[in-house]
Write a structure and sequence with these properties.
- The protein is built from 4 helices and 6 strands, in the order H-E-H-H-E-E-E-E-E-H.
- It is α+β, with helices and mostly antiparallel strands.
- Strands 1, 2, 3, 4, 5 and 6 form a 6-stranded antiparallel beta sheet that branches.
Length: about 170
Amino acid sequence: MVNHLDILATIETKFFAINWENEGIFMMGDRTLQRPLEVELAIPVKTYDIDFVGIVHNSVYIRWLEDLRIKLLDEHLPLAQPLKAGFCPIIAGTEIEYKRPIKLFDKVIGRLWLSNLSRLKWTVKAEILSNHELAAIATQKGAFINLQNGRPIPIPEELQKKYCEYQ
């Protein structure tokens, strides 16, 4: 017997994925694609975030990405732990594509997930939504470095294990 709810769920799932792909979000196929170690954060827009044009200044997005990365670390590798062990994460690059402006009283949600992890490098992807609409997408690349010599070190095993659970 055909379950109409299953058919509707499949159609809705495919539409959701196609719609988000067209908006530049990094999803493929259907909603079952996981975003490893994804975190979400409600982001208040402050008066000092607004530039002379009346929208959130582009530099504010960098701070929001930092807030999201810190949340990811708090949940999966608390920063005090690597600092105590003599290493820390660093940013090697940031790319942001702005889709629509954000204004002072908008409801902003940020989401960030670990999209790639190699032996020495990591990549996170993020989306910023404003009033439930895509406002920006971002990619950041980085590594972990030894605090004494500044050289890259392998990705911490704890983080590798958590990431591998999604593969």
